Amino acid sequence: MRRLSFFLFAAAVLGQDNVLFDNEQARVLKVTDAARQKSGLHQHDVNRVMIYLDAGHMTITEAGGKVNHVRFKAGEALWSPASGKHVSENVTDKPFRIVEVELKGKPRPFEHPALDPVKVDPGRYKVEFENDQARVLRARYGGRETGVLHEHGPDRVIVYLTDATVKVTTPDGNSTTASAKAGDVRWVGVAKHTEENVSEKAFEVVVVELKTRPGEMPKIFGGAQMQEIYRMRLDRDDMLLESILEFIQKNNIQDGAVMTAAGSLQECTFHGVESLAAKPEQKFTTRKGPMEILNVNGVIAAGEPHLHMTLSSPDGPAFGGHLEKGCKVLYRAELTIAKFSGVPLARKPNAQGVPVLQRK
């Protein structure tokens, strides 16, 4: 792969910069470098992917005085490693634009999905370069062309090099059509679909797949308020999870939490993870006999609860796991369920197929 040997210009000090996205994985900017613009002394602390929307020529002057010349074509994508102090200058009489993807996260174990577009649709998807932080693809569809079903595993940044109008159809038959202008940038996540160019003109995009994971900070979703609290009673032979699901649906609890639970069960099914593999390996267990409910709690997102429980029995220590259907109340069960208002959440699969909380 071609890469910029050590230096590239800094968006923060050169021309106009526009932060498009900024999260735990990456910061994405669209930068315009004015004609004959010269930066101040600066450096880059993280690796980056640079996508050039226009052709250009710039000089990079190192702190020691060495001058490097960098020439690039419109639509070219290059890798730019973290660099030391330098000064950058657009040595042409025309401005140029760059989309800059700053990679914040650390490399993580990564496997491309089974329906990787590079494998199943190699005529349209080509690898520009790949390393432990990112894979950069170039996709091109001719006018009125329809691709094949494929799958995107990681989060990715799409940079449109041309205008495009694309119809996307998921395996369940649902379709959406969206348009973009040349120079537009989108952040998208995990997806499985077929793409159709509904225009007579070909379109071309550069796709930056992120193989990084966030740092130590968890993803925090603020902005929710407690709208209502329900107290629920279940009697003998009532089904625990089935009753919770029915209650959530009946009361339209899209976002909320099961906060507390106490009672007893006569039988119950649950599952837990049993390995440290990247993709979860789960073991399901069914227990029968008198059991005390020590707690049940979890988050409700998009009307779907993710609940764990802790139980005890007369003949052993406490145990538990992920609550499944089939848990039958012995004498009674009492639960507290909260309904939230504010920022809605949903769960979407990450690269390992684990449904994780995201803004809806």
Going by helix content, strand content and strand pairing, the class is mainly beta
The number of E-state strands comes to 28
The CATH class of the largest domain turns out to be Alpha Beta
Can you summarize the main beta sheet? 6 strands, antiparallel
Please state the overall shape, judged from the principal axes of the Cα atoms.
Answer: elongated
User: Which topology of the largest domain does CATH recognise?
Assistant: 60s Ribosomal Protein L30, Chain: A
Helix content: under 10%
- Looking at CATH, the homologous superfamily of the largest domain is Hypothetical protein, similar to alpha- acetolactate decarboxylase, domain 2
**From N to C, what is the helix and strand string?**
EEEEEEEEEEHEEEEEEEEEEEHEEEEEEE
**H/I helix tally:** 2
Radius of gyration: 26 Å
Q: Give the name of the CATH architecture of the largest domain.
A: 2-Layer Sandwich
Task: Walk me through this protein's architecture.
The protein is mostly beta strands and 360 residues long. It folds into three domains: 16-103, Jelly Rolls; 106-213, Jelly Rolls (Sandwich), CATH 2.60.120.10; 224-359, 60s Ribosomal Protein L30, Chain: A. The protein has helices at residues 117-120, 240-250; strands spanning 16-22, 26-33, 42-44, 48-52, 56-62, 67-72, 77-80, 83-90, 96-103, 106-107, 125-130, 134-141, 150-152, 156-160, 164-169, 175-180, 185-188, 191-197, 203-210, 212-213, 224-235, 255-273, 282-301, 304-313, 316-323, 328-342, 345-349, 355-359. The two termini are 37 Å apart. Mean pLDDT is 90; it is low at 3-16.
